[in-house]
Amino acid sequence: MCVRTRLVSSSSVRLSKAIIIAVIVVYHIDVRGLF
C-alpha cells in the first residue's frame, strides 16, 4: 500500500509539473506570436 501510494503521488506530481511546464511554454509562444 505505501509503495503504491508513493508511486501514485510521485507520478501525479510529475504529471502536474509537466502540465505546468507545457502551459508556460504555450503561453510564452503565444506572447511572442502576438508581440
N-end to C-end Cα span: 51 Å
- Provide the structure class: mainly alpha
- Based on CA atoms alone, the radius of gyration comes out at 15 Å
Order of helices and strands: H
The tally of helices reads: 1
The low-confidence parts are none
Largest sheet: none
Counting DSSP E segments of at least 2 residues, the number of strands comes to 0
β-sheet strand percentage = under 5%
Mean pLDDT: 82
- State the helicity in percent bands: over 70%
Oligomer: single chain
Overall shape: it is: rod-shaped
Explain this structure.
With 35 residues, the chain is mostly helical. The protein has one helix spanning 2-34. The protein starts with a helix and ends with a helix. Keywords: Membrane, Transmembrane, Transmembrane helix. The chain crosses the membrane at residues 12-29.
